[in-house]
Predict the 3D structure of the following.
Amino acid sequence: MLVQDEGGRIVLLVLDGLGGLPHLDTGLTELESAATPNLDRLARAAALGMQLPVAHGVAPGSGPGHLSLFGYDPVKYNIGRGVLSALGVGFAVKPGDVAIRLNFASIDGDGRITDRRAGRPSDEENRRLVKKLQDNVRAPGGVQVFFESEKEHRAVLVLRGRQLSAELADTDPQEEGVRPLPAKALKPEATETAELLQQILDSAFEVLRDEKVANAILARGIDAYHPFPTFFERYMLRARAIAKYPMYRGVARLDGMDSARVPDSDEETVAILAEDFDDYEFHFVHFKAMDSRGEDGDFEAKRKAIEAVDALIPKVEALKPDVLVVTGDHSTPSRLRAHSWHPVPLMIVSPWTRPQPDATFGERSCMRGELGIVPGREIMTLALAHAGRLAKYGA
Amino acid sequence: MLVQDEGGRIVLLVLDGLGGLPHLDTGLTELESAATPNLDRLARAAALGMQLPVAHGVAPGSGPGHLSLFGYDPVKYNIGRGVLSALGVGFAVKPGDVAIRLNFASIDGDGRITDRRAGRPSDEENRRLVKKLQDNVRAPGGVQVFFESEKEHRAVLVLRGRQLSAELADTDPQEEGVRPLPAKALKPEATETAELLQQILDSAFEVLRDEKVANAILARGIDAYHPFPTFFERYMLRARAIAKYPMYRGVARLDGMDSARVPDSDEETVAILAEDFDDYEFHFVHFKAMDSRGEDGDFEAKRKAIEAVDALIPKVEALKPDVLVVTGDHSTPSRLRAHSWHPVPLMIVSPWTRPQPDATFGERSCMRGELGIVPGREIMTLALAHAGRLAKYGA
């Protein structure tokens, strides 16, 4: 292993969903249209490129997008849907936990599903139902059961116990007019866990029996959390995550990063970065608004969200990180209203670059940069090299 | 395998440590600052790109850097430290040899190390000590023992015999005030070799007992040489290496290349290239000065070293190679005074290119070239293709 336990401090700024597509009127992307004097100034001296989070043509979810940025091959280190949902609601997943996505549903007197989403209950109603389940469902011996609210009809169930297997089929039949499927093992080693899950579901149906609408639950996306090698083990970096949303803190925690105080705004995010800055060699800082506005399809709002982050850049510079990496976890073009497969602008600010003096921070300017198209999972190696934290390979 | 036993002749010019970083005053790298009319003229018609010897962020040593240029994946074909040292002093390593790096050291009457470097003896003193060991150390039955001088306190020990194992721990404790460690097998199959090594070390301590300063040796970086598939087996090319320094001839010999007469200067290097030019289909030609001056941190001297190679280019062109490849084995920016992770300018001169008429041979011009960023180990396939030596893949 080439990693050394000395060298510079690294800050990774993730502008979620940063990459975009040109506006049909102007031919410029959200980032290219935005007034970003600070990012552009840094770009003139930085190493620029485009980063490919997973592979050409693949639009990544937030989990793989961030794992890739943290240097974990997102195909090898796969976080399943259930674990992602548990992370998304801020549940502290532990190794061996089996996480399951739940839908509240409606069934008729014959047990047949009449609404797979139980009329989309309010979040408040969702929380009432989840509390009722948590208080009343009987956990089988040796297993802890955690119900967690998500949104509308969605909730999460986590099973904790010894030797659980997640090789279980969904009980959600994905159609109405039929009964929920029984819990079923996909492999022999999951037989016992299937029986446990069925007992829990039976108890839950009993608890919900008197509900007028949400009188059933359907399980899907069942998987187990297997721990990853930690960030410190891989890179000898004490690392922390500063992110408003639990999902991103969760992915960072999976890699062994500390969670800092939770910010309420982008301004507070940068204020927290300044706190105890010297206690960590790696800071992951997450800004969400670009992605949300891109998914709204609101080009102008996404452009403004980028400008708002640009305005905070001097406060980050004032902390004098040795290496500053600015990129996104994926593209979210407003015209697509969704995560996309397009590579994401990448900038590495350090003294050891081959910059283009006329560069700006934008998709087409970054594409002309010294890094070309970089696999996202190689950004960490580059950041470590720029921080003087990698030994020479071979003599 | 697509390789064909016919086609053009290839010359690979390696300008060691070629890639650089911009001077802080001018914004231009060593290569971009150098007056290289011949390389620039070739660049206008050549295929240009940047080559990545190992991976993003990884600064390669000379061994992996050259293996990559020769088309051997430097992670798969790993040359250990001991074998590299043996190659570095020009020792003809054979398959199965176990090579060991030695330090001359000082021990007190109690056998404890007082100086791990024996006061850094002169090279002449080093040669005297090595000769004394070679003449007097008793080799155990069935094993040949070779001691070779390196520099100052460093030497190399090679064991040759049947069924030796290199799975041995260092005897160098890496600290003073303690005794050298006994030879120890790291795996059961090395038990016998550990005993042999201990006998040799015991004999060496006996031989050095009357020395005032260098009265002990410490062993480290122990490894075995396992032969690689040869250059001819892989590419059907008769190949030779023209290099002033033994290290580079050694890496080429590991791949089965012939060594030409050893040049004294860059001028003689090119003169030797002209000798028996038609007897080989592949010529590896090594120029060292760029790397040395980069490691000195001397921007101007590195620039001039590049200009000196440029002046020799017409003599190489006069030999009319069908394909001329010009690149480095890694970057050695003067500002970093060390090998670095930055990609290296690459030019392939052949009639089968898509050139940019305004191109020059420099980092940023090459980055705009038709090859983009190429893994170093794929340069050989490109060179073979340009030489008409690769058959079509599939029907």
